[in-house]
Design goal:
Layout lengths: L1 H10 L6 E5 L1 H9 L1 H10 L1 H24 L4 E5 L8 H19 L5 E6 L8 H5 L5 E4 L5 H5 L7 E6 L1 H6 L3 H15 L5 E5 L9 H16 L2
Helix pairs in contact: 2-3, 2-4, 3-4, 4-5, 9-10
Length: about 220
């Protein structure tokens, strides 16, 4: 992945090139077992914090390698944090995300945060407090509600449903989804239209083209 970023920077100059890492709680959950990690938030927080400290050190080093490779930033995917309460998420995820941001982020390197969990919208204030420069929400989040909670200097991205629109939809459904989202939050200067999560490889190109075409049409009306 680091080498891929280095190669991409040599040929891509008109858009940011970002590395990608799992968030501390999501990676810690994979190491411990997801179910155990969720239980440990209440039953064994000491062991969980010990794991997260080690994970955080690794992620700082890993993010640093992307930085050395010339990447413009790193995209942190932290979906597991969306399965715990906002208060717990701040303790077991947000605090460690902030450490990563404080160590890596500077004028030329930005940290982007992604959470597609159902509770991500309720975590908005906590996510903002980590200091990330951009927040990417999943399709379960009401974008209008979160936009009003986020300062205008933080980019906000989302959140067309990857399954319902990109895979199981049609060009007509995609165009309607894009119009509805842009009519709701497109007027915010810090909003960037995006999918709600990874676009599956089974998404049809006609649907992907409809996504971009509808966005261009909306932009032309401004």
């Amino acid at each position: 992945m680091v080498e891929a970023c280095s190669l991409a920077k040599k040929v891509i100059s008109d858009r940011p090139v970002l590395g990608g890492i799992l968030g501390p709680f999501s990676l810690g959950g994979r190491l411990l077992d997801v179910n155990k990690a969720l239980v440990y938030t209440k039953k064994n927080p000491e062991l969980l914090h010990l794991t997260l400290q080690k994970v955080c050190e690794f992620l700082i080093d890993y993010g640093g390698e992307f930085k050395k490779a010339g990447a413009d930033g790193v995209f942190i995917a932290e979906p597991l944090a969306g399965l715990i309460s906002p208060k717990m998420s701040e303790e077991f995820s947000g605090a460690y995300i902030k450490k990563i941001v404080d160590f890596l982020q500077d004028e030329s390197f930005s940290v982007f945060y992604h959470n597609c969990g159902d509770a991500a919208g309720k975590m908005t204030e906590s996510i903002v407090n980590t200091g990330v420069r951009a927040i990417h929400f999943g399709n379960k989040v009401n974008m209008k509600e979160v936009m009003d909670l986020i300062p205008p200097d933080i980019l906000v991205m989302g959140n067309i449903d990857p399954a319902a629109c990109f895979v199981n939809g049609t060009p007509e459904i995609m165009r309607a989804c894009v119009r509805a989202l842009l009519d709701s939050v497109g007027s915010y200067n810090n909003f960037i239209l995006s999918s709600g999560c990874d676009v599956p490889h089974t998404a049809g190109f006609d649907i992907i083209h409809a996504f971009y075409h509808e966005a261009e049409k909306w932009q032309e009306k401004l």
